[in-house]
Design goal:
By secondary structure, the chain is an alpha+beta fold. It contains six helices and eleven strands. The two termini are 25 Å apart. The structure holds flavin-adenine dinucleotide. Flavin-adenine dinucleotide binds next to β3, β5 and α3.
């Protein structure tokens, strides 16, 4: 197990109390979820009302990054220093037990608490945009036109140091193998899940003769 991201003082708020053996606080476990998950649900409060907004996220080193429009309410509130909760979930399978009660899901998820700040440094902003692009489609940043000055001006990039964070993971079969229910003639096991790319749809306005890029081809070859 790698080094913990949360200190003893801060681990309290992210300590996994239900099924504590599934909780992990080391960098490797938390970064694995962040790096494999594309979508984060980002929660914050506005005027006493919690909001939880789906967004893309990318990690660089010990920080998680978001990007959005300068016109975005979410980016304005988060960039203004509102406490945030970032959750990333990977669903690995559905767990079918003999009883309805013992059904479950195999998953890896991460919950991060912290405060975002606006990224002003031009090099760090470009690095974050490259990280977003290449995270979604590895190698795509090298294929595309880079952001113009105007596009950069219209884009807010936020980063949050990864400090107070937990991962929670469930692996394996249903828990009723050793119970009296195992004597029933009911199938039990795991239906494994994966997210896979299916096919490409060329843009209607695509000039003829432009081949599918290597980056998209690699996505289609992935097994998920
Ligand atoms: C998979 C995914 C990835 C996304 N990635 C990004 C990203 O990287 N950057 C980015 O800026 N935006 C992203 N979005 C869009 C994002 O969810 C918000 O719609 C957007 O950021 C505008 O937020 P806002 O608070 O300014 O919107 P507002 O329009 O001010 O939100 C007002 C209300 O509209 C509703 N609303 C807003 N967004 C959604 C939504 N997605 N689904 C349902 N209701 C909604 C909510 O009730 C919200 O309180 C992504 C959406 C999805 C589904």
């Amino acid at each position: 197990m790698g080094d913990a991201v949360a200190t003893k003082k801060t681990i309290g708020r992210v300590h996994v109390r239900r099924q504590p053996s599934r909780g992990h606080y080391d960098r490797d476990s938390i970064y694995e979820v962040l790096d494999e998950g594309l979508v984060a649900h980002v929660a914050f409060m506005e005027a006493g009302q919690p909001f939880c907004i789906p967004m893309l996220q990318a990690r660089i080193g010990d920080a998680v990054y978001l990007h959005g429009s300068t016109a975005s309410r979410t980016m304005r509130i988060l960039g203004g220093g509102a406490p945030a909760c970032v959750t990333v979930t990977l669903l690995d399978g559905l767990v079918l037990a003999r009883s309805a009660f013992e059904h479950s899901a195999n998953y890896r998820s991460a919950v991060l608490l912290g405060i975002f700040g606006r990224v002003a440094d031009p090099d760090e902003r470009i690095a974050a945009l490259a990280a977003f692009t290449n995270k979604l489609v590895p190698g795509r940043w090298e294929e595309v036109r880079k952001p113009s000055r105007q596009e950069l001006k219209a884009t807010v990039i936020l980063s949050m140091p990864i400090g107070e964070a937990s991962a929670k993971c469930r692996f394996g079969p249903p828990t009723d193998d050793g119970s009296v229910d195992a004597g029933l003639d009911i199938w039990a096991g795991v239906v494994r899940m994966r997210t896979a790319f299916d096919n490409v749809e060329p843009s209607p306005g695509l000039r003829p003769g432009i081949p599918v890029p290597a980056s998209a081809g690699r996505l289609l070859e992935r097994k998920g």
